[in-house]
Design brief:
Strands 1, 2, 3, 4, 5, 6, 7, 8 and 9 form a nine-stranded mixed beta sheet that branches. This protein has two domains: 37 residues; 167 residues. The longest helix is centred in the N-terminal third of the chain and has 35 residues. It has four helices and nine strands. By secondary structure, it is an alpha+beta fold.
Protein backbone atom coordinates (compact mmCIF):
# COMPACT_ATOMS: atom_id res chain seq x y z
CA UNK A 1 0.00 0.00 0.00
CA UNK A 2 2.81 2.38 0.94
CA UNK A 3 4.63 1.48 -2.25
CA UNK A 4 1.50 2.30 -4.27
CA UNK A 5 1.12 5.64 -2.51
CA UNK A 6 4.74 6.53 -3.29
CA UNK A 7 4.24 5.71 -6.98
CA UNK A 8 1.04 7.80 -7.01
CA UNK A 9 2.85 10.75 -5.46
CA UNK A 10 5.63 10.44 -8.01
CA UNK A 11 3.08 10.38 -10.83
CA UNK A 12 1.30 13.48 -9.53
CA UNK A 13 4.67 15.13 -9.04
CA UNK A 14 5.70 14.39 -12.62
CA UNK A 15 2.38 15.72 -13.96
CA UNK A 16 2.76 18.89 -11.88
CA UNK A 17 6.29 19.45 -13.19
CA UNK A 18 5.13 18.86 -16.79
CA UNK A 19 2.25 21.33 -16.38
CA UNK A 20 4.61 23.88 -14.87
CA UNK A 21 7.04 23.50 -17.78
CA UNK A 22 4.20 23.81 -20.32
CA UNK A 23 2.91 26.94 -18.60
CA UNK A 24 6.41 28.39 -18.71
CA UNK A 25 6.73 27.55 -22.40
CA UNK A 26 3.36 29.17 -23.17
CA UNK A 27 4.42 32.27 -21.28
CA UNK A 28 7.73 32.38 -23.16
CA UNK A 29 5.93 32.05 -26.50
CA UNK A 30 3.49 34.78 -25.48
CA UNK A 31 6.34 37.08 -24.47
CA UNK A 32 8.12 36.26 -27.73
CA UNK A 33 5.03 37.28 -29.70
CA UNK A 34 4.83 40.55 -27.77
CA UNK A 35 8.50 41.24 -28.40
CA UNK A 36 8.06 40.63 -32.13
CA UNK A 37 5.20 43.11 -32.51
CA UNK A 38 6.33 45.81 -34.90
CA UNK A 39 5.89 49.51 -34.36
CA UNK A 40 3.41 51.17 -36.75
CA UNK A 41 6.23 52.78 -38.77
CA UNK A 42 7.94 49.38 -39.14
CA UNK A 43 4.91 47.63 -40.56
CA UNK A 44 4.96 49.09 -44.07
CA UNK A 45 7.51 50.45 -46.53
CA UNK A 46 6.49 52.54 -49.52
CA UNK A 47 8.19 51.34 -52.69
CA UNK A 48 6.85 53.88 -55.17
CA UNK A 49 4.40 56.74 -55.44
CA UNK A 50 2.85 57.88 -58.72
CA UNK A 51 0.83 61.06 -58.46
CA UNK A 52 1.29 63.26 -61.55
CA UNK A 53 2.21 63.13 -65.21
CA UNK A 54 1.54 60.60 -67.99
CA UNK A 55 2.38 57.66 -65.68
CA UNK A 56 -0.76 58.49 -63.70
CA UNK A 57 -3.14 58.35 -66.67
CA UNK A 58 -5.21 55.23 -67.35
CA UNK A 59 -7.90 54.67 -69.96
CA UNK A 60 -11.26 53.35 -68.82
CA UNK A 61 -11.26 49.51 -69.04
CA UNK A 62 -13.58 48.04 -71.65
CA UNK A 63 -15.94 45.19 -70.71
CA UNK A 64 -17.43 42.83 -73.27
CA UNK A 65 -21.22 42.66 -72.96
CA UNK A 66 -24.21 41.42 -74.94
CA UNK A 67 -25.40 45.00 -75.39
CA UNK A 68 -24.96 46.40 -78.89
CA UNK A 69 -22.28 48.89 -79.91
CA UNK A 70 -22.66 52.59 -79.30
CA UNK A 71 -20.42 53.27 -76.31
CA UNK A 72 -18.47 56.52 -76.30
CA UNK A 73 -14.72 56.62 -76.67
CA UNK A 74 -12.93 55.51 -73.50
CA UNK A 75 -11.57 58.46 -71.53
CA UNK A 76 -8.48 58.98 -69.40
CA UNK A 77 -8.66 58.85 -65.62
CA UNK A 78 -5.99 60.19 -63.29
CA UNK A 79 -4.88 57.36 -61.00
CA UNK A 80 -2.83 58.00 -57.86
CA UNK A 81 -0.95 54.87 -56.79
CA UNK A 82 1.01 53.92 -53.67
CA UNK A 83 3.04 50.71 -53.97
CA UNK A 84 4.08 49.35 -50.58
CA UNK A 85 5.38 46.27 -48.76
CA UNK A 86 3.91 44.99 -45.49
CA UNK A 87 5.99 43.25 -42.79
CA UNK A 88 3.55 41.71 -40.25
CA UNK A 89 1.97 38.36 -41.02
CA UNK A 90 -1.36 40.20 -41.04
CA UNK A 91 -2.26 43.86 -40.64
CA UNK A 92 -5.74 44.70 -39.41
CA UNK A 93 -6.00 47.81 -41.52
CA UNK A 94 -4.23 50.64 -43.31
CA UNK A 95 -5.75 54.10 -43.74
CA UNK A 96 -4.70 56.09 -46.81
CA UNK A 97 -5.76 59.72 -47.35
CA UNK A 98 -5.45 60.84 -50.95
CA UNK A 99 -5.23 64.51 -51.98
CA UNK A 100 -5.28 65.68 -55.60
CA UNK A 101 -4.94 69.26 -56.87
CA UNK A 102 -5.92 70.48 -60.35
CA UNK A 103 -5.27 73.87 -61.92
CA UNK A 104 -6.89 75.84 -64.73
CA UNK A 105 -6.55 79.50 -65.80
CA UNK A 106 -9.55 81.75 -65.20
CA UNK A 107 -10.66 82.88 -68.69
CA UNK A 108 -11.54 86.35 -67.37
CA UNK A 109 -8.76 87.21 -64.94
CA UNK A 110 -6.09 84.87 -66.35
CA UNK A 111 -5.26 83.88 -62.78
CA UNK A 112 -4.97 80.22 -61.88
CA UNK A 113 -7.92 78.53 -60.22
CA UNK A 114 -7.38 75.38 -58.17
CA UNK A 115 -9.61 72.45 -57.25
CA UNK A 116 -8.86 70.05 -54.40
CA UNK A 117 -10.18 66.49 -54.27
CA UNK A 118 -9.89 64.27 -51.21
CA UNK A 119 -10.56 60.61 -50.51
CA UNK A 120 -9.90 58.46 -47.43
CA UNK A 121 -9.66 54.72 -48.08
CA UNK A 122 -9.40 52.02 -45.40
CA UNK A 123 -7.82 48.70 -46.42
CA UNK A 124 -8.30 45.66 -44.15
CA UNK A 125 -6.80 42.16 -43.72
CA UNK A 126 -3.47 42.95 -45.32
CA UNK A 127 -1.31 39.83 -45.58
CA UNK A 128 2.47 40.04 -45.41
CA UNK A 129 3.89 40.65 -48.87
CA UNK A 130 5.43 42.95 -51.43
CA UNK A 131 4.02 45.43 -53.90
CA UNK A 132 0.57 46.00 -52.42
CA UNK A 133 -1.28 48.84 -54.13
CA UNK A 134 -3.43 51.61 -52.70
CA UNK A 135 -5.16 53.65 -55.39
CA UNK A 136 -7.51 56.58 -55.96
CA UNK A 137 -9.17 57.47 -59.26
CA UNK A 138 -10.00 61.01 -60.42
CA UNK A 139 -12.93 61.11 -62.81
CA UNK A 140 -12.26 62.37 -66.38
CA UNK A 141 -14.90 65.09 -65.94
CA UNK A 142 -12.76 66.72 -63.23
CA UNK A 143 -9.76 66.89 -65.54
CA UNK A 144 -11.78 68.09 -68.53
CA UNK A 145 -13.61 70.77 -66.58
CA UNK A 146 -11.21 71.90 -63.85
CA UNK A 147 -7.80 71.38 -65.41
CA UNK A 148 -4.89 68.98 -65.27
CA UNK A 149 -3.48 67.50 -62.09
CA UNK A 150 -0.55 69.54 -60.77
CA UNK A 151 -0.07 67.84 -57.39
CA UNK A 152 -0.99 64.64 -55.57
CA UNK A 153 -0.30 63.35 -52.09
CA UNK A 154 -0.99 60.30 -49.96
CA UNK A 155 -0.89 60.05 -46.16
CA UNK A 156 -0.59 56.53 -44.71
CA UNK A 157 -1.77 55.78 -41.18
CA UNK A 158 -1.27 52.57 -39.16
CA UNK A 159 -2.84 52.08 -35.72
CA UNK A 160 -3.68 55.79 -35.53
CA UNK A 161 -0.14 56.95 -36.34
CA UNK A 162 0.95 58.61 -39.59
CA UNK A 163 3.78 56.40 -40.87
CA UNK A 164 4.46 57.89 -44.30
CA UNK A 165 3.56 60.87 -46.47
CA UNK A 166 4.16 60.96 -50.20
CA UNK A 167 3.79 63.84 -52.63
CA UNK A 168 4.51 64.81 -56.22
CA UNK A 169 4.04 68.32 -57.60
CA UNK A 170 4.37 69.97 -61.01
CA UNK A 171 4.11 73.53 -59.66
CA UNK A 172 5.66 75.49 -56.82
CA UNK A 173 3.89 74.52 -53.59
CA UNK A 174 4.84 74.58 -49.90
CA UNK A 175 5.91 71.38 -48.17
CA UNK A 176 2.91 69.34 -46.98
CA UNK A 177 0.78 71.56 -49.19
CA UNK A 178 -2.39 69.47 -48.54
CA UNK A 179 -2.56 70.75 -44.96
CA UNK A 180 -0.94 74.16 -45.42
CA UNK A 181 -3.40 77.05 -44.80
CA UNK A 182 -1.74 79.10 -47.54
CA UNK A 183 -3.01 76.51 -50.01
CA UNK A 184 -6.21 75.02 -48.60
CA UNK A 185 -7.59 78.37 -47.35
CA UNK A 186 -6.74 80.25 -50.54
CA UNK A 187 -9.70 82.03 -52.21
CA UNK A 188 -8.45 80.60 -55.50
CA UNK A 189 -9.07 77.03 -54.30
CA UNK A 190 -12.33 75.07 -54.28
CA UNK A 191 -12.81 71.71 -52.58
CA UNK A 192 -14.86 69.42 -54.79
CA UNK A 193 -16.61 66.29 -53.51
CA UNK A 194 -17.46 63.11 -55.37
CA UNK A 195 -14.79 63.22 -58.06
CA UNK A 196 -12.04 61.16 -56.39
CA UNK A 197 -13.04 57.51 -56.06
CA UNK A 198 -11.65 54.37 -54.46
CA UNK A 199 -11.14 51.26 -56.56
CA UNK A 200 -14.51 49.64 -55.80
CA UNK A 201 -16.27 52.85 -56.89
CA UNK A 202 -14.35 53.01 -60.18
CA UNK A 203 -14.62 51.11 -63.48
CA UNK A 204 -11.62 49.04 -62.28
CA UNK A 205 -13.69 47.37 -59.51
CA UNK A 206 -13.97 44.07 -61.41
CA UNK A 207 -10.46 44.03 -62.90
CA UNK A 208 -8.36 41.39 -61.08
CA UNK A 209 -10.17 41.95 -57.74
CA UNK A 210 -8.15 39.23 -55.97
CA UNK A 211 -4.96 41.24 -56.50
CA UNK A 212 -6.10 43.98 -54.13
CA UNK A 213 -6.89 44.35 -50.43
CA UNK A 214 -10.48 44.61 -49.28
CA UNK A 215 -11.79 48.15 -48.84
CA UNK A 216 -13.99 48.71 -45.81
Amino acid sequence: MRKGMKMLKRTFGSVAVALFLLAGADQAISQSNVEKKLLPEEQIRVRRFVGIGPRALATTPIYQTSIGAGAKRAQDWHVVTVNYDSAPEWMNDLLVEFHVLTMIPDPETRKNLYSLYKKTVRYVDIERGKDHRAMAFLRPAAINRYGKVVASAAVLTVEGKVVDEQSETAVDLPEFWWRNPLVIDSPALTVREGYLLNRTESPWALVNPDDYEVIK
